[in-house]
Amino acid sequence: MASPKYASLDGEIVAWDDARVHIASAGFKFGTAVFEGLRGYWNADEEEMYLFRMAEHMDRLTFSQRFMRFDELLTPQTVTEKTLDLIQANGFKGENLHIMTTAYVSGQGGPGVCGPIGLAITAQERPRSERVISGVTAQVSSWMRVPDQAMPMRVKCNANYNNGRLATVQAVADGYDTAIFLNSRGKVSEGPGMCFFMVRDGVPITPSVTNDILESITRETVLELIEEIFGVAPVERDIDRSELMAADEAFFCGTAWEVTPILGIDRVAVGGGDIGPMTKRLQDTFFAVSDGTSGTHPEWRMPVYGTAAAKAAE
Ligand SMILES: Cc1ncc(COP(=O)(O)O)c(C=O)c1O
């Protein structure tokens, strides 16, 4: 897909090819940066672009900056405003977006340098990937999820993502679509960039937030939707590796992965090897909530263009 016209760098809208950082910056050298991946969902009927759970993403960006002890914190207001400006400048309409908002140390020095802080934002059209619909296979990785006392996954720090890279490239080399990490206690943690759920006897189960996972906003969304749709209380607890083989259904969730069925783990079919009925219903509901077609949970959607409000005012 062609590059968009503009990116946003340090508060300015710049041509895509001019969005560069210095090679001596700590952000570039050590991955001293924190980010949020978000989605914009296009609602054709309303001719509106909705940012999904922007406020929660901005809260997490603040937490990550604070945790990394950045000299100054970019506020949710600033990052939100610059993100809206960028999408409007590009004039994206008609397709879903993937957005990245990154607070990075532009200061030059060692890994301990704490500022100044730059802001980099990209927004690109990204249609829903085929694998989200059709499902994926996963390998239980021989790489361990980095433990909280080493590099907390709770913090969305760019450098953390090389742990996920190792597991992903190994899984793909071995003929799988992606990986599932175990943590230092041998319990199921999450995927390289998404959280894990399984269903056993009608009850959705997911690793608790003390299993070296990112405190995922989609996971929170899914936990809430499960109660609403099925009237079942999902369970957050440790999951043993052996339990994966007992799952009737399994799926990943996350901003990029939305709700993605898992068809097989370690070449063993999950349930019947098809998309499970709870997973399918949850996926349909998630799609309809995120682009606003269901009309429910308006508090989760931030309009970019204000089309509905403008129409209402006419
Ligand atoms: C490591 C990791 N786990 C889980 C997730 C899912 O988090 P969220 O739903 O907030 O996007 C992500 C990001 O998408 C991630 O990078």
Order of helices and strands: EEHEEHHEEHEHEEEHEEEEHEH
Q: Approximately what portion of the residues adopt beta-strand conformation?
A: 25-35%
CATH architectural group of the largest domain: Alpha-Beta Barrel
Structural class: alpha+beta
Low-confidence stretches: none
Number of strands: 15
Mean pLDDT over all positions = 97
What is the CATH topology classification name of the largest domain? Answer: D-amino Acid Aminotransferase, Chain A, domain 2
Instruction: Summarize the main sheet.
Output: 8 strands, mixed
Rg, rounded, reads 20 Å
> In angstroms, what separates the terminal alpha carbons?
37 Å
The first-level CATH class name of the largest domain: Alpha Beta
What's the tally of helices? 8
| Structure ligands | pyridoxal-5'-phosphate
How many domains?
A: 2
Shape: globular
**Percent of residues in helical segments?**
25-40%
Write the layout of secondary structure elements.
Layout: E1 6-9, E2 12-15, H1 26-30, E3 33-43, E4 48-52, H2 54-67, H3 76-90, E5 97-105, E6 117-125, H4 130-134, E7 136-144, H5 161-173, E8 178-182, E9 195-200, E10 203-206, H6 217-230, E11 235-236, E12 249-254, E13 258-265, E14 268-269, H7 277-290, E15 301-303, H8 307-313
Parallel strand pairs: 7-8, 7-13, 10-11
Antiparallel strand pairs: 1-2, 1-6, 3-4, 3-5, 4-15, 5-6, 9-10, 9-12, 12-13, 13-14
Helix pairs in contact: 2-3, 6-7
The structure holds pyridoxal-5'-phosphate.
